[in-house]
Amino acid sequence: MTKPKIAILGTGYVGLVAAAVFAERGFDVLASSLDKEKVNLINRGQPPFYEKDLGAIVESVVRTGKLRAVLGRREAVLDSDIFFIAVGTPSLMSGEADLRLVRETAAAIGEALREKDTYSLVVARSTIVPGTTRNVIIPLLEKHSGKKAGEDFGVCMSPEFLRQGAAVYDTRNPDSVVIGELDTRSGTFLEGFCRQVYAGQNVPILRMNLESAEMVKYGRNTFLAMNISYINELARIAETIPGIDIYEVVKGIGADWRINPAFLNAGCGYGGSCFPKDVKALISFARLRAVQPQLLETVEEVNEQQAIHVVAIAKQEMGGSLKGKRIALLGLSFKPDTDDMREAPAIKVANHLYAQEADIVAYDPRAVPNARERFIRDTIKIYYADSVQECLKEADCCILLTEWEEFRKLSPEVFNRCMKRSVIVDGRRIWDEEFRKKVAAYRGIGLGSDNAYASEQTVLLKLGDMLTKAGLITQEQLERALEEQNRTGGLIGANLIKLGYLTEEALLGFLGKQYGISRKG
Ligand code: UGA
Question: Does position 378 have pLDDT exceeding 90, yes or no?
Answer without folding.
Answer: no
